[in-house]
Specification:
The complex is a heterodimer.
Chain A (H helix, E strand, L loop, with lengths): L28 E5 L7 E7 L2 E12 L12 E8 L14 H15 L10 E11 L4 H15 L9 E8 L2 E4 L3 H6 L2 E8 L4 E5 L2 E2 L3 H30 L5
Helix pairs in contact in A: 1-2, 2-4
Chain B lengths: L11 E2 L4 E4 L4 E2 L3 E4 L2 E4 L3 E6 L2 E6 L11 E9 L3 E5 L6 E4 L12 H4 L5 E9 L5 E4 L6 E3 L3 E4 L5 H5 L4 H10 L2 E5 L3 E5 L2 H21 L1 H15 L1
Parallel strand pairs in B: 3-7, 10-12
Antiparallel strand pairs in B: 1-6, 2-5, 4-5, 6-7, 8-9, 8-11, 9-10, 11-12, 11-13, 14-16, 15-16
């Protein structure tokens, strides 16, 4: 639970954040599509100091057979943080957190991928976090969406992962590491930018209704911006130019 | 539109992108209709032909359809059937009753073993994607010679060209037999130089065809070959 620490100052006297950003300003985002030749589709997303690589394989026959669905494909997501992704070494392998994030990411992606086109199949999505600085699940979702598009998997929309939160009783967009650790709330969401639907939402900490609405407003604004960068990345790869 | 990106109105669309009102037009592959508007579901080039709007995907998986000619590789052998890797999500099943030989029960391996390459046709695909293959038909056989080259499924129509024009040019230029399976595998048979030329031509068409146009690439390669000779 994010209780916050009263003695940690996260906002400067002029209202800006410790890294100089405004409250509704995102960290810089860059995306590259098709970075892994062996995968059907792949993407690398750099969001602030976060670096995530996603690879998509399939659709393939779902194994073991008990996971097969006769009327649709299953999406098998493996989210993993590299041991060197943080300053403290992370023990390699699955843990409770990565299992949870894999599950919520798979459910978010299942709501946008046209899974009914591939009965009994499996679409494997591997998300590897190479460097972490708060908000890795959102960066992972964004990377997975670009990788799925790159792989030619049919989708209703490209889902964008983005987060807002609350620090020192102020709602801010896109928490960095200090804000995530010492802030009061975190609200990561998966947004479908073209339809405005929400495919995934988690909340850690407390927000009032007004704060929640403001945080969502920031999230939607950022999602549009990131979506533009995602489309640019795909166009750069295949069209040879900007959108 | 066999010239890759040569047309002036080529437009790259991404999943979720609104394309325009659906009134009076039909939705083709890669398009869904939502609130009377067309939405792209795949990354690819937008195409409108015969009043149907569709997306030519940049990447796509092979989805078997009944009647497809495929180049399969034997993946498993049982007493009375073979499982073929047909480059799709699922293996294709070839029962001994649909093989071109009279096969005794338990003798399937004597006719074809794991790794053998065959030219087969998709007999049937059910709603659960079970694929049954047949080798009964003109030209369907085990391929004992030649080479197999991969072609991304979405490029097959373009590699063939209108009325197989580009494929025929390739055949003439390298003096090889070339069969292109719908499943993204081409079988090439001829002299080793011819096979090497055809493989190079196919690779170049696949890698550069979207920006240069296939005919330009073939012209360049043919000129280069004549120059070398």
């Amino acid at each position: 639970m994010m209780g916050g620490y009263g003695d940690v100052q996260l906002l400067n006297d002029d209202g800006s954040r410790l890294d100089g950003r405004k409250v509704d300003e995102m960290r810089p985002v860059s995306i590259e599509a098709g970075v892994l030749p062996a995968a059907e589709g792949s993407a690398m997303v750099t969001h602030g100091l976060n670096v995530a690589v996603a690879a998509v394989y399939g659709p393939m026959e779902a194994h073991p057979r008990k996971i097969q669905r006769q009327d649709r494909a299953v999406i098998d997501v493996r989210y993993n943080m590299a041991p060197f992704s943080t300053s403290d070494r992370i023990r390699p392998g699955f843990n409770r957190r990565s299992r949870e994030i894999s599950k919520v990411t798979a459910e978010a992606l299942e709501s946008v991928v046209l899974v009914e086109r591939y009965p009994r199949s499996k679409i494997r999505v591997e998300i590897e976090i190479l460097a972490a600085e708060a908000g890795t699940r959102c960066v992972g979702i964004t990377a997975a969406a670009v990788a799925l598009a790159d792989a030619g998997i049919p989708m209703r929309d490209m889902i964008v992962g983005v987060a807002s939160g609350k620090i020192e009783d102020t709602v801010v967009l896109d928490l960095d590491k200090a804000e995530d650790n010492y802030g009061q709330a975190d609200l990561p969401v998966g947004i479908l930018p073209n339809t405005g639907e929400i495919a995934f939402l988690q909340m850690d900490g407390d927000l009032s209704a007004d704060e929640f609405n403001l945080a969502m407003e920031y999230n939607f604004k950022a999602a549009k911006e990131i979506h533009g960068i995602m489309v640019d990345a795909l166009k750069r790869k295949y069209d040879g130019g900007e959108a | 539109m066999s010239q890759g990106q040569a047309g002036a109105e080529q437009r790259l669309v991404t999943p979720g992108m609104a394309i325009g009102p659906s009134a009076g037009k039909r939705a083709g592959s890669g398009i869904i209709v939502a609130e009377e508007s067309f939405i792209a579901t795949q990354l690819g080039w937008l195409r409108e032909r015969n009043n149907t709007v569709s997306v030519d995907p940049i990447n796509a998986a092979y989805m078997p359809r009944s009647g497809d000619l495929v180049v399969g590789i034997v993946a498993e052998v049982r007493n009375n059937l073979w499982f073929m890797n047909i480059n799709g999500s699922f293996q294709g099943l070839l029962p001994m009753s649909l093989a071109p030989w009279k096969v005794e029960f338990g003798a399937a391996r004597q006719h074809m073993d794991v790794g053998d390459v065959v030219l087969a046709r998709v007999q049937e695909v059910d709603e659960c994607h079970n694929v049954v293959l047949t080798m009964k038909g003109v030209g369907l056989r085990r391929l004992n010679q030649g080479a197999v080259e991969s072609i991304p499924v979405q490029h097959i129509d373009r590699v063939r060209g209108e009325n197989n024009a580009i494929l025929q040019r390739m055949r003439d230029a390298c003096d090889c037999r070339i069969m292109i399976g719908e499943n993204g595998r081409a079988w090439i048979e001829g002299s080793s130089e011819g096979i090497a030329w055809a493989r190079k031509a196919i690779q170049q068409l696949v890698q550069e065809g979207h920006s240069k146009g296939f005919e330009t690439i073939l012209n360049e390669m043919e000129n280069k070959t004549q120059g070398d000779a």
